[in-house]
Write a structure and sequence with these properties.
The protein is 76% helix and 0% strand. The protein is an all-alpha fold. It has one domain. The chain binds zinc ion.
Length: 119
């Protein structure tokens, strides 16, 4: 891959990384605030079981969202490292080049289309 193209994908990845980090930061702030809210709720209404279970579900879906974002961020970070180590755009399974079209859609793709389909 030529330097110009590599620079272009690096910019895409760094923008994605910033976007994810910002969103995660916001989510974590909200998450912490609502956790404090619910704990003060619990102490004042210890018998409201329905409230507690609803809260747990909410917390679970939020932590699911955070987990998937953390995973995406890790993939973005790996892709950025690959740019620096000159292995960006190479399929991790078969070592062939990942098509620029695929990288355009998913800049942090780790597998070529063929291996992506088979996995
Ligand atoms: Zn492959």
């Amino acid at each position: 891959m030529n330097a110009k193209k590599l620079e272009y994908f690096k910019k895409l990845l760094l923008a994605k990384k910033k976007e994810l980090e910002d969103e995660l930061g916001e989510l974590e702030v909200k998450f912490n605030v609502s956790q404090q809210d619910s704990s003060s709720d619990l102490s004042s209404h210890p018998t409201h079981v329905a409230d507690i279970s609803g809260d747990a579900e909410d917390r679970e879906s939020r932590s699911c969202l955070i987990t998937s974002m953390v995973e995406e961020l890790a993939q973005v970070n790996r892709a950025i490292k690959k740019i620096y180590s000159d292995s960006y755009g190479i399929c991790e399974k078969c070592n062939s080049k990942i098509s620029p079209k695929r990288l355009e859609a998913i800049p942090y793709a780790e597998l070529c289309i063929k291996c992506g389909k088979n996995s």
